[in-house]
Every structure is written in C-alpha cells, then in structure tokens.
Amino acid sequence: MNNLIIAPLLIPLLTGVILLFLRKHIVAQKVLSMLSGLAIIATSGVLLGDVLTNGVGSYQLGGWQPPFGIVLVADSLSVLLVLFSSIILVATTLFTYKGLDLERKNYYYYPLVQFLLTGIIGAFLTGDLFNLFVFFEVLLMSSYALIVLGGTKTQLGESIKYVLVNVISSALFVTAVAFLYSMTGTLNMADLSQRIAEIGQPGLVTVVALLFLIVFGMKAAIFPLYFWLPGSYSAPPPVISAIFAGLLTKVGIYAIYRVFTIIFYHHPEITHQIIGILATITMIVGVIGAVAYNDLHKILVYNVVAGVGFILLGLSSFNEDGLFGGIFYLLHDMMIKAALFLLVGAIIAITQTTKMNQASGIIKHYPLLGWSFLVAALSLAGVPPLSGFFGKLALIQGGFLAEQYVFVGVLLLSSLLVLYSVMRIFFLVILGEDRLPETHNSGQIKGLVYPSVFLLVLSFLMGMGAEFVYPYVADATFTLLNPEIYIEAVLKE
Amino acid sequence: MRTNDVILKTATQLIIFIIIIFSIYVFLAGHHNPGGGFIGGLMTAAAFVLLGLAFDIDTVKKTIPIDFKMITALGLLIAVLTGVGAFVFGANFLTHTFDYFMLPLLGETELATALLFDIGVYLVVIGVTLTIIFSIGEDQK
Description:
The complex is a heterodimer. Chain A contains 21 helices and two strands. Chain A has helices spanning about 5-20, 25-55, 75-100, 100-105, 110-125, 130-150, 155-185, 190-200, 205-220, 230-235, 240-265, 270-290, 295-315, 320-350, 360-365, 365-380, 385-400, 405-430, 440-465, 465-480, 485-490, and strands at about 55-60, 70-75. By secondary structure, chain B is mainly alpha-helical. Helices cover about 65% and strands about 10% of the residues of chain B. Chain B is built from five helices and two strands. Chain B has a two-stranded antiparallel ribbon with strand order 1-2. The longest helix of chain B has 25 residues, at about 115-140. The chains are: A mainly alpha, B mainly alpha. At the A-B interface, helix 1 of A face helix 4 of B.
C-alpha cells in the first residue's frame, strides 16, 4: 500500500498532538521529538528509493480522484526536501537538550516544532494549490508562536512585523488563488498545468504568475520583499533561528520552483527573466548586508538572503544544469545554514555577546567548535571538496548555457563576499588573542557543538559522495523539466 | 463591587441549557443542513462565555473543572485518528463512509464516520475559543 507517502506528514502531526498531553514531562517530549525525527528520516528515505525506482508517486486523500480531491505527490524534489527537513529537526532537537531554557520547553516548544514540521512537510508534498496555502498557514502559525516564545522585548517587536508581513502575503496568496481559480476552474496543480497549457498562458495568467512570485517571494525573502527577515530571524534563540533559516525560506523557494516549473512555464522570457533579475539583486543585497555588519546574527541572516538569490538563479536559467545546481544548492544550504546558526548559538553562549569585536580566541579553549565553524564557512562559500561546490558549479554552468553572464558574474563575486563575511567571524572571534569572558566553561558547550558536527559531517559526505546524491537530484531535475511526468502520475486513469 | 444581578444569573441558568442543546443540534445537523463542528463548537463555547459573564471565570472553572488546552489536544487527536482509522480498512487517509442503522428511539438513522471527525473539530473549537477568552480574562487579577 502506498500509505508511505502520507507517513512523513502524519508522524509529526500525531507526535505534536501527543506532546500536547505530555506538557509536564520534558524528558518524554525530548525523546518523542527525537523519535519522530528519526521516523521521518526512515520513512522518507524509503520513499526516496521508491520514487527513484517506481517514478513519481501520488496519494489520493479520502480516496477521491484528482482533480476533485486533494492529492499528495511525492517526486524526488519534495521527498529530498522532506528528508533534509527531518535531518534538521533531529539536529535542532539534539541542540535543545542543552541549548534551550526550561521556560521555553515548558511552554510547548516541542509540540510547536512538530506542528511547524507538519506544515513544512505538507507544503512539500501537496499537489493542490489551496492545500499548499493551508500548509503554509500551519507552518506560519507555528512559526509565529515560536518566534515570540519566551516573550523578550526584541522578540515581541520583531514578531509583530513578522506576523504583519505574513498576514499580508497570505491574503495575497488567497487573492492569487482566487484569480487563478476564476480563470481555470481548478486548484489541482497537475490539472492547472494542463489547462494553462491548453490556453497557452495568456497575459492575464502571467500576471497571476507574478502575483504568486510576490507571495512566495515574501515567504522566501527575495529582493525587495526580504526586509522583514533580518530582524525576525535574529530575535528568537539560536535553535529557533536555525530551524527558521534552515527550513522556512526554503519552503517559499520550493513553492516558487514548483509553481514556475509545473504551472507557469510557458513564457520563461518574462517570468523566469524577472526571477533572474530579482535573484541577482537579492544576492547583491544579501552580501552587502553580510559584509556590512559586525553582529554575528546579522551576518548569518544576510547570508540566508544571499542564499535565496543563489538558489533562485537556477530556476532563472531554466535548463538542466541550472535546476540541478539550484536543487543541490538548496539541499546543501538547508543543512549549512542550520549548522551555522547552531554554531553561532554556541559561540554566543560562550562569549555572551553577538558583537564581533568584543571577544576572541575561542579556538584555544574549544578547538572542535572552531574547526567546525571553519568547515561550515568554507562549505558555505563553495570550496571544492565540500558540499557547496557542486551546486554552485552546476549553477554557473547553467547560467553560461542560458547566456546569463551578468548573473553568473554576480554569483561568483557574491560567493567571494560570502566567504569574506564568514571568514571575518573566523578570524576575529574564533582565532585571535584570548579575550573570553570569565564565565565560560567547557562543560556547557559540549552538547551544543555535536548537532552542528552531525550536520557538517552529513554535508561533508554530501560533498564527497556527490555521485551518490546525483541520481536523486538528477531525477528531481528531470521531473521539473518535464511536467508531463508529474501530470501523468497525478491524473493517471 | 458587584451589583446584584439576580435576573441575569437566573436567566443564564436557563438559557445556557437551551444554547448548548441548540449547539448540539446544529452540530449533528451538519451533514445534511447548515451546521457542523465549527459553528456547533462556537455556540457551545458561547454558552460557557455567557456563564463566565453572568458569574465569573472562577465559577466556570469550578463548574467545568477541565483544562481546555487538553480539550483542544483531545479534539486534534480524535480528528487525526479518524483519518488514520481508514488504514485499518485498507483505505486511504481520511476516507469516510456511512451506513444506515436501526437505533432505539430514533429509528433508521444515517451514521457517517465524518461525524467522528467533526467531533474532533467541535472539541478543538471549544478548547481554543475558551482557552483564548479565559486566558485573556484571567489577566485582570
């Protein structure tokens, strides 16, 4: 039975509900959250193998035939993303054992994260546009609660902005869906794709496509809709920022990838060109921010913005290499961003400050932390043996094939500045003379470094074993470039 | 100082049962007529809010000694489990079915598994509404 497709969605949902009953039992919550993460890794791993051998899988909720019912679609891209999200869940759960105060754990941290993951996995798996909206709301509601959890002054201020921006973009999402529904009369993505192909994407549909770009761009933080991100991602505690940076913007990127390869792909000279221009400016804005600040959080947060630009560039070139690079870089970016935020969380736990020039010399006392940060930084910039390299290489090839020389030039220059921004942290905070506050002790940091080491080892293996990852990403690329495979799998008779 | 609102309190004691019965009626009617778990849950919650207005929150807590957050969790659990229950019969998630049964007093009645899902929705709505209202109300102290 192909109930396997819905398993990654049901596991966090059921776990989240059960954790609500276990509010007073923090230990049980920790154990169950971890088990849930491992179970999702296992099921999505099996599912991934299944998709590679048997092709795209679809699952009809309630047994209703598409396009009338809701379908879940498991293609390589969505299952890969589910797998990597659950890896991040495991790593961050490990981090919370020592890296999160009891107060927050007492107020439903673990169930909220499970519900967040339900929304994220649902958004990856769904094959219905309105259902995508609902799962977006599930993940946003959980993220509202997570961002404000603890109730410090900065958190309150930033969460107001965050909620406001997302409420507006959700309203726009509904409007866009309403326009599209009034034109096509369907909400199922495969059916939508067929109907739009029949009418050949007239100008009005392209307008709706751009409306979707605005909506998802707001979630994914592309230029000029990224303004909310720097504040809201640096307000919550490090582990929550790591989850956000690893997962939330990536759902927006995934939605852009999905919508612009399955539904609105008939006029790439308009839509994909605009995506390319916006992605390029996003990279520029991101690296300017990353280089400009002296605050650890701000540097990382602007690197998230730059990463969004890199990934979307792959969609803009819209050929095999570009999409392959985009997906590979997306997967790498999820892990590395989460790892970097966790590492910086550990650094801040030692130095008690987010400013770069107030403490240094971490590597003398915490060599593992220091060297992990170096590996993460080099991987982020895309130094050859590490995982960031192959994605960027394919992105550059794709850009050259699509003759987008300016975009590629900006990408290379941005990579250099990204490297500069994180190496600055390495040289100023991690190396340098011993200027750590008296309060630090090596015991408190032990549990905080291992989760990032776990993520870094995986990302290292992903770089070294790119050949092993290749068939999955290539299959995802192939499905994106040939929407009829997707449509066939969903609307099979 | 509280004024002596004996009329309000007496009327509430009567009306609250009418509201709850009506809300349950609307809840059960949902399959064929306007109604359902959401509106039924809101009405039941409204009955408890009326109780809270006429007396005070402590009275409501004493009358209904339940943690409403647990009601929400229970409702969610029921809703998810009715979906999962379809697996037992080899059907897809959330597959629903219905059949006719002879019940005592009611005669031939159509019973749908969608009602079980709706019970979940009903409980979640009650739980969430009352958690919101009572946790805001408590801050006055």
